[in-house]
Amino acid sequence: MREHAARRGFEPATFLLGSKQETVVHRPYSGSNTSADVRVLYRVIKLYGEYSFSTLTLANFNYNLQLRRGSGDEPASTMLVPIFTLKLNHKINPRMVAIGKFDGVHPCLTAATQAGKVFIHNPHTRGQRPVAHRLSQSTQDSDISLLNINQAVTCLTAGMLGPNTTGDTLLVGSQTNLLAYDVHDNADIFYREVTDGANAIVLGKLGNIPTPLAIIGGNCALQGFDYEGNDHFWTVTGDNVRSLVLCDFTGDGKNELLVGSEDFDIRVFKEDELLSEMTENETVTSLCHMHDSRFGYALANGTVGVYDRTARYWRIKSKNHAMSIHAFDLNADGVVELITGWSNGKIDARSDRTGEVIFKDNLSSSVAGVVEGDYRLDGQKQLICTSVEGEVRGYLPASKDLKGNLMDSSAEQDLIRELSQRRQNLLLELRNYEENAKGVSGTNSGMGVIPANTQLQTALSVRPATEAQKAHVELCISTPNETIIRAVLIFAEGIFEGESHVVHPSAQNLSGCVRVPIVPPKDIPIDLHIKAFVGGKTSTQFHVFEITRQLPRFSMYDITVDSSDALPTGWVTFSTNERTQRVVMWLNQNFLLPEGVDSPDVTFNSLRGGGLLSISMASNGQITLRTDDIDLAGDLVQSLATFLAIEDLSAEADFPGYFEELRSTLTEVDEFHSVHQKLTAAMADHSNYIRNMLVQAEDARLMGDISIMKKRYRELYDLNRDLINEYKIRSNNHNALLACLKSVNQAIQRAGRLRVGKPKNQVISACRDAIKSNNVNALFRIMRAGTASS
Predict the structure, then answer these.
(1) Which 8-state DSSP code applies to residue 601?
(2) How many CA atoms lie within 13 Å of 349's alpha carbon, on the beta-carbon side?
(3) pLDDT bracket for residue 316 (50, 70, 90)
(4) DSSP 8-state class, residue 554
């Protein structure tokens, strides 16, 4: 082997394999064609049939080569292993990782790190990067350049932004600014102040807008910038934005914007038009496009799952947090899997159809981000996983002969154990059925034999607050005969802690009826999946009944017959061409009404303490909703428009109490802006004083005038203390300003939700123009009438 290798220009190398040293051959790394080196090395090893690859990380990544004994024709392993591993000497901020080809050729790993900096790892062009402007060389690693942002980084991405550029643009967001940076030329492209901050960012084409946009989501607002920093897109959403992704949701060949926010909603925007909303039960922390209209999502409570448009395919929940999700075809079956990086360092790949785990691995610390790129420049993209401690692993897609099986033997053993346990459970269930069949003709009262006509009945009713119990919706589960309910399990999202609730009455309280109080936190429809154990009074074995019941969207509103109370001052009114019966049908589907209600003129009392809600419909089709809760009014309008299939709906509205609060908030915004400018000017003056005092103190030291030097340093100490105090004041002022701006953006969103379709978009756009021009009176006219004209 040594002789044959020498003829081909290879050199021998010794590796420790288990307890035995073995000699293989390698060609010295040339630095030019790494993939060719690897392929030749692989051919030589395969030629002798003594070794096959288990793990390979390239020489320019400080690699080690691990081999295992085996035949030359068998696969290295049924387990997918990293093709390269890096140990970077920089920590990585979670969810702030990207891959960019900044020179148009070489992919570079880019991530936010500590102290307001972004590092760029580029092992492909060593010694060719300039050190000037924002970019500087890392002292710890020659392959890493550091970009100094001087602010805490909140999001970043990389991609093609300019129409005539050859390389990708790096985009870095903070709480106050957005930077577009040309890494290759080491120059700013644009630097924009963003009042609402940048919590999430995505880059690409949106709808009919011809140029790519850098879209940022911040304080209840979405904003899109082109290559020159011009603002081409703006709209508002319900709460702080946490995740963004572009996806052809409607299948029309144009991208829609999917927005995940802190109010638990996933919203779909076709430019500034809201197409759809999906409500989850926690903050939506991550979104990723998979294929066509299918996308993955992750929540703050450890839930990950997949939607196809508005239909959820599957979801799973973990005790760990999902730090990053990405779509990648890891098993080479032509369909991407959902790759999830977890807070405990685990990485798993799940089928987009079923959620089944097909691969998993573990990093030594929490995952920071999951991306993909051709990092070895061999024409194949790798899945690249990073940890918060700077560990980087790259995985190639599996070869065709693995046939989708990427799990190692231990995982397969776990699956076998799980199937064995399931088999035992089924055998036990079968044995119970056999014993029940025997008990029908016997006299054993412990058998769970029940009458053939036994059914599980459910009823929902509204229960106002009493001295003993808060207001709630009561779920009554009962049987029609002498059987008893031993236990009830209810599975529902967003109602119970852990999404499940168990009622297990004591032996002396067993009966054929179980009542469960339910308090839905939000006005959303909820599916209640109910399982009940039913049997005789002395049974030791029970039949399991399963039933699903939907809780209506507005179930926390109790119809009232006392009309003596004053009606709310807030109202919204609009006209439809629908028949009265259709509105009554909507009422019955969305509220818990007693039998016999056949009129659309009803009044409800909010069980959450929101006061009265009055709904009325005139003979000409005009519908009036009266409530002091503008959020409730918006929910009612959107629900009714969806039920009646109304595409465009204009409305007039007035909410005196809420509008007065908004007017006060706008006044506070002006005051906070004024204070901010004064504090900024004062800090600039103090900075000049500090510079002068430092010069004077140094001059006194050089002249030997120690008393003057001490005096200047004492003054400098006092001035520095004042600067710190002013900074605290400025920070508090800034936080208060952000809270007020969030309230203003939410007010625009709420005014928009009182309309549907084009009138809604017109209201949002007109409100923004009024705020830009500081025309408060026009703003309130728009919110009331839907137009700025008086």
Answers:
(1) -
(2) 26
(3) very high
(4) T
Answer whether 135's CB lies under 8 Å from 179's CB: no
Tell me the residue type at 304.
V
Cα→Cα distances 749→541, 637, 721, Å: 55, 14, 42
- 724 token code pair: 């710190």
Asked if 258 contacts 246 with a C-beta cutoff of 8 angstroms, the reply is: yes
**CA nearest 269: which of 726, 777, 732, 764?**
764
Region of poorest pLDDT, from 109-123, 124-138, 343-357, 712-726:
124-138
Order the strands of the 322-328 sheet from edge to edge: 322-328, 337-342, 346-350, 357-362
Q: Give this prediction's pTM.
A: 0.79
| Neighbour tally for 509: CB within 10 Å | 8
pLDDT, residue 27, reads 37
> Degrees (nearest 5) of the Cα angle 164, 166, 171?
90
Ramachandran class of 501: left when φ > 0, alpha when ψ lies in -120 to 50, beta otherwise = beta
CB 277 within 8 A of CB 267: yes
Please state, in angstroms and rounded to a whole number, the distance separating the CA atoms of residues 490 and 500. Answer: 6
Which 3 state secondary structure label does DSSP give 527? strand
CA distance 248 to 131: 41
What's the alpha-carbon Rg for the chain, to the nearest Å? 33
Element (H, E) at 261: strand 256-261
CA distance 110 to 149: 14
Give the pairing type, strands 557-559 and 513-518: unpaired
Residue pair 153/112 in contact (Cβ under 8 Å)? The answer is: yes
Instruction: Describe the crossing of helices 758-772 and 706-753 by its angle, rounded to 10 degrees.
Output: 150
Instruction: Quickly list DSSP for 562-594.
Output: ---SPPPS-EEEEE----HHHHHHHHHHHS---
Pull the structure tokens for residue 39: 């392929």
